[in-house]
Amino acid sequence: MKKILSILLLLIAIPSQAEIISRNLIGTAADIIIIQNYQAETGMGEVLVQLCPSCTSYKLILTSKTKISRDSAPIQLAMLKTYLDEKRNAPMRLQFNINTKQVVSIALRRNNKEYPE
After folding, report:
1. Are 105 and 67 in contact (CB under 8 A)?
2. Are 50 and 88 in contact (CB under 8 A)?
3. Is 63 left (phi over 0), alpha (psi -120 to 50) or beta?
4. Phi and psi dihedrals of 78, rounded to 5?
5. Per-residue DSSP letters for 27-79?
6. Tens-place pLDDT, residues 21-54
7. Biggest CA-to-CA distance, the chain
8. What is the rounded distance in angstroms from the CA atom of residue 77 to the CA atom of residue 75?
9. DSSP secondary-structure letter at 107?
10. pTM of the model
11. What span, in angstroms and rounded, lies between the C-alpha atoms of 44 and 67?
12. Smallest Cα–Cα separation from 99: which of 50, 54, 61, 42?
């Protein structure tokens, strides 16, 4: 019984020790600003994300591993600037690694009633 209790306590403690390594930012396409060292041909470089004027800004890195989707369909990283400029009020969800500042994914959505064109 003592061994079972020890194992149960250990199992309970494991999830609480997990480190959070990513963060999600939810806003609109207008919240992503492409900065000067962005390479349009490859889609790699840096972006600045700020969800509101008084919110913290994040300088993040786009890499070849960054996944971008529009309405759940994958798009090429090189097309990011085009899609961001196309519909500035469209909803966006960006996930990045808090340690490396690399963007894991960007999900762009079509405008709807909550986000008019």
Report:
1. yes
2. no
3. beta
4. -65, -20
5. EEGGGEEE-TT-BTTTTBEEEEEESSTTSPEEEEEE-TT-EEEETTEEE-GGG
6. 889 999 999 999 888 777 777 778 899 999 998 9
7. 64
8. 6
9. E
10. 0.73
11. 11
12. 61
40-95, pLDDT tens digit by residue? 777 788 999 999 989 999 999 998 889 989 888 898 888 888 888 887 888 999 99
Q: Are 46 and 58 in contact (CB under 8 A)?
A: no
Provide the 8-state DSSP code for 95. Answer: E
**Which H or E element spans position 92?**
strand 91-97
CB within 8 Å of 76: residues ≥ 6 apart? 43, 68
Whether residue 80 contacts residue 106, with contact meaning beta carbons closer than 8 Å, is answered with yes
Show the tokens assigned to 9: 């306590």
Report helix, strand or coil for 108.
strand
Amino acid at 96: F
Report the residue count for the chain: 117
